Amino acid sequence: MPAGLLPIIYLAFISLGLPDSALGSAWPVMGPSLGAGLSWVGIVTMIISAGTIVSSLMSVRVVERFGTGKVTVASVALTALALLGFSISGEFWHLLLWAIPYGLGAGAVDAALNAFVAVHYESQHMSWLHCMWGVGASGGPMIMSACLGIGTWGDGFRALGAIQLAIVVVLTLSLPLWRDRKLPHGTRESGVEAVPAARSRRELLRIDGVIAVLICFFCYCALEGTCGSWAASYCTLEAGIPAETAASWASLFFIGITIGRLASGFLSFRVSDEGMIRLGQLLVAVGLVIFFVPWARDFLAAGFILLGLGCAPIYPSIIHATPRRFGDDVALELTGMQMAFAYIGSLAMSPLFGVIAQAIDISLYPVYLAALLAVMVVAAEKVNRATSARRRA
């Protein structure tokens, strides 16, 4: 692969993470200025998630027609357009309209780049790729905070949109680098790059282990989404920790993910994708023990760091293992399906815990996370058995 392409891919993933936390950071000021309630931001994020699900499932068709490079450029351009649209929104319903291109752009670039890196690069680059997402996700709120300090939330979205447009220019200039492709077995040529031979989703679901890996992905993203969204509420309502402290402790989970993915890239030189997934699951289990043991409640901050460190290698390792487990020819289609299940897991299971917490008790937070972890472990081991059986055959 061209030496200059990998930094471009990293830059694209920073652009994917940049706007992810910006809306939530701006909402305490943004919502009242638009006459919207505190919970209304959930409507915007649901539309974004729906768009990402649709574009993830359609990613193989779009990449087949236009190539990964052009899809990446167009996707980042869509998110830039959406951010600039957010900046000029004067009514809440305007946000709902701009959420559509935001979601479509984010889902397409996520699936396309994950599949591209899984096929063409080693495991450590997948971990570092998702570390770059963490860099972007951490930088977005900082940019928004700085803009709120000297201006308005609109200025924050304009700044993020301008950064995205600058990245679009860099990606456009890099398009010639995406054309030098080795054609993997089972693929066909489509003018600009190798693309997978057409196979229906029904055919893919019949492959042993595919349903299990989709369940594994669903549970992982449900666990990550629930853990991050409800961490501060659990600390405040169940553990009696002041709200300011609880908010900072919740951020430790995301810091753990970012640091963990950086470290995972180096560790993956010696540990297989399956080993990285198991290590991550073990760390999540150890982190959850702190929530269950009464005397360990004083170490909840450490528990959130462990949960983040444990989550760090799971997502990139599952994605990177896809071509080896199921074949290069179906890697893009399966990556799109996995992305869709990931977004569905985040979209459905975190709000479901909110219903449970309100109807029963928020103390079920670690129980809920443990149940998701258990199903994930069972599904992951089923995938490993299916992969081993194919190798023996």
Describe the structure.
Mean pLDDT is 84; it is low at 180-196. Helix 3 packs antiparallel against helix 4. The protein is globular and about 60 Å long. The chain has a two-stranded antiparallel ribbon. It has 393 residues and is mostly helical. It folds into two domains: 5-196, MFS general substrate transporter like domains (Growth Hormone, Chain: A), CATH 1.20.1250.20; 203-392, Up-down Bundle (Growth Hormone, Chain: A), CATH 1.20.1250. It is built from 15 helices and two strands. The protein has helices spanning 5-17, 22-33, 41-66, 68-87, 92-120, 123-150, 153-173, 201-205, 210-237, 243-267, 273-292, 300-311, 314-326, 331-359, 365-392; strands at residues 187-189, 194-196. A hairpin with a 4-residue loop joins strand 1 and strand 2.
Task: Summarize the helices and strands and which ones pair or pack.
Elements: H1 5-17, H2 22-33, H3 41-66, H4 68-87, H5 92-120, H6 123-150, H7 153-173, E1 187-189, E2 194-196, H8 201-205, H9 210-237, H10 243-267, H11 273-292, H12 300-311, H13 314-326, H14 331-359, H15 365-392
Antiparallel strand pairs: 1-2
Helix pairs in contact: 1-5, 1-6, 1-7, 2-6, 3-4, 3-5, 3-14, 4-5, 4-7, 5-13, 5-14, 6-7, 6-10, 6-13, 9-10, 9-12, 9-13, 9-14, 9-15, 10-12, 11-12, 11-13, 11-15, 13-14
CATH architecture of the largest domain: Up-down Bundle
Arithmetic mean pLDDT: 84
* CA(first)-CA(last) distance: 32 Å
CATH topology of the largest domain: Growth Hormone, Chain: A
| Helical content band | over 70%
- Beta strands, count: 2
Name the helix and strand elements from N-terminus to C-terminus, one letter apiece.
HHHHHHHEEHHHHHHHH
Shape: globular
Output the radius of gyration: 20 Å
Poorly predicted tracts of residues: 180-196
CATH class of the largest domain: Mainly Alpha
Strand content: under 5%
Report strand order across the widest sheet. Answer: 1-2
CATH superfamily membership of the largest domain: MFS general substrate transporter like domains
The biggest beta sheet reads:
2 strands, antiparallel
Number of domains: 2
Which structural class do the helices and strands define?
Answer: mainly alpha
